[in-house]
Design the sequence.
């Protein structure tokens, strides 16, 4: 066993131990298991929310994109900003309603607001589908970390198998409290590791950040600005906007808003969390440092850039520590995603379809769904060759479809009908699926349009259709309209 | 709820990102060692936090009265 792998194993055991400790002495009701009994303070909510944002996506995906694509990776720095700005107005409304109606999940919100259990079930299923690519990207990251830190001794499929076992174990044992404690350890570690690497690597290899960018600008002209076509400014802005709308539409992010103690938490978050985005700079620096030092990683292999550069720069046990930080950034969000999908399937899908299930039965079923969801994700992880960032963008395209129906449900009485909300979401999701499966681009759909339009994120098509259908069906099924129809008949 | 015109300040970060990025992308130079576009994104981060701090402070003051 390599020293790097030993360090990694030690941290894996530590995270399992933390998960177990967090459980001790607390009664495990469903509310305790999922939203931690609504007792978390500001700092904990801050860490929990930050923990979900800083995932493998940031660590390996963002550095990999900076390495492979250059300037388009900067979108990752920007969409969070607009999401936090939006959250300032959005989340307090969601939180107040959730508090009043004792809601646990995102689907509860839609079901209660639109008075439609069917809509709740649809939202749940779409949410779980969207979370699969998100979980897949964490597993992909775990696989890369374990196989790279083993210096080739553990193959990627074995690495994925090992990590998913650990993930399933601690989710089943501890629920959200385990995630929270590990989020604390993880956030401290990832901050330390990312900042240290982001400063040290450019200095070591290029003599500083400025000289590094100067060297890249000279070797690869145009790499540090957005291209005129493809990932152009149109792509950038539309992707930032869609991702910002989708940011809190993830079932787990939405539900984590319920764990806040008071509304003021969200106000503070909108001020503080954007600053936390600056950690991303360090991650970009690592990716850029790799550009000229470990060239030749193409496509999905660009996700390996960070670890390859670290292996070139450090002794194995240091690589192990870096890998351990990466391991936690995958395990913590991975556990949250797994936990959310399993709970949603048990409570908001099966629990709604089979009437009269006891809370205890739902709890047992939720735990039973954990390994099932994990296996589905493992299957996708091992069968696809997509890089980390496109996987997340796919998930975003799914969850963003909730936004129009949510926005119209914010007033005390929704200004759309349940049929409209349902039709809009289903239309959007169907289009996203079709675009993904067929690999269609706007440029192929509308070859005569100028690039400024065809470079737009393809998710915008699904969003536009969603809004159009939502409004049209709502207008047709609006109670007053029906009453008029009845009167004239 | 009473009118809170300062909440319109929240539009500033949106304009800085959506309007600013296409313009910033035209500049091909390093600022403080960073590519201009990246420097602009960093500026947007600081701007967002500052703007939301002002909005939050004014909202809290309005809540008290």
Sequence:
């Amino acid at each position: 066993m390599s020293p790097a792998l030993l360090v990694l194993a030690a941290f894996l055991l530590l995270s399992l131990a933390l998960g177990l400790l967090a459980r001790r002495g607390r009664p495990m009701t469903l509310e305790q298991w999922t939203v931690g009994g609504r007792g978390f303070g500001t700092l904990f909510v801050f860490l929990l929310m930050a923990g979900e944002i800083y995932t493998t996506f940031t660590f390996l995906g963002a550095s990999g994109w900076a390495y492979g694509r250059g300037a388009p990776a900067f979108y990752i720095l920007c969409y969070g900003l607009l999401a936090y700005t939006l959250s300032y107005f959005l989340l307090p409304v969601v939180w107040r309603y959730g508090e009043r109606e004792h809601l646990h999940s995102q689907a509860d919100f839609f079901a209660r607001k639109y008075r439609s259990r069917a809509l709740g079930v649809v939202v749940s299923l779409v949410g779980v589908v969207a979370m699969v690519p998100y979980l897949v990207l964490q597993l992909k990251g775990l696989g890369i970390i374990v196989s790279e830190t083993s210096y080739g001794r553990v193959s990627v499929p074995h690495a994925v198998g090992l990590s998913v076992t650990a993930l399933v174990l601690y989710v089943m044992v501890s629920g959200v409290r385990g995630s929270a404690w590990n989020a604390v350890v993880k956030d401290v570690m990832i901050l330390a590791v990312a900042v240290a690497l982001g400063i040290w690597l450019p200095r070591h290899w290029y003599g500083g950040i400025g000289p590094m960018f100067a060297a890249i600008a000279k070797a690869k002209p145009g790499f540090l600005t957005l291209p005129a076509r493809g990932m152009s400014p149109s792509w950038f802005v539309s992707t930032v906007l869609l991702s910002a709308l989708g940011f809190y539409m993830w079932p787990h992010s939405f539900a984590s808003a319920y764990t806040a103690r008071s509304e003021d938490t969200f106000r503070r978050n909108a001020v503080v969390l954007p600053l936390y985005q600056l950690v991303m700079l360090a991650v970009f620096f690592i990716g850029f440092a790799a550009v000229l030092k470990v060239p030749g990683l193409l496509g999905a292999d660009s996700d390996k850039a960070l670890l390859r550069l670290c292996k070139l720069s450090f002794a194995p046990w240091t690589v192990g520590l870096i890998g351990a930080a990466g391991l936690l950034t995958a395990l913590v969000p991975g556990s949250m995603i797994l936990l959310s999908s399993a709970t949603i399937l048990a409570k908001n899908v099966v629990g709604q379809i089979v009437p009269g299930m006891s809370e205890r039965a739902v709890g047992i079923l939720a735990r039973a769904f954990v390994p099932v969801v994990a296996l589905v994700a493992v299957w996708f992880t091992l069968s696809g060759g997509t890089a980390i960032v496109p996987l997340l963008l796919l998930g975003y395209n799914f969850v963003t479809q909730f936004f129009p129906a949510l926005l119209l449900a914010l007033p005390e009485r929704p200004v759309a009908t349940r049929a409209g909300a349902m039709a809009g979401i289903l239309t959007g999701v169907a289009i996203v699926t079709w675009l993904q499966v067929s690999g269609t681009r706007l440029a192929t759909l509308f070859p005569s349009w100028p690039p400024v339009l065809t470079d737009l994120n393809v998710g915008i098509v699904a969003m536009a259709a969603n809004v159009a259908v939502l409004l049209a069906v709502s207008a047709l099924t609006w109670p007053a309209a029906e009453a008029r129809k009845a009167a004239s008949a | 709820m009473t009118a809170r015109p300062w909440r319109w300040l929240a539009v500033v970060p949106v304009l800085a990102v959506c309007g600013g990025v296409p313009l910033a992308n035209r500049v091909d130079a390093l600022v403080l060692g960073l590519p201009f576009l990246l420097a602009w994104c960093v500026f947007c981060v600081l701007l967002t936090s500052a703007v939301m701090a002002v909005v939050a402070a004014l909202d809290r003051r309005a809540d008290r009265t």
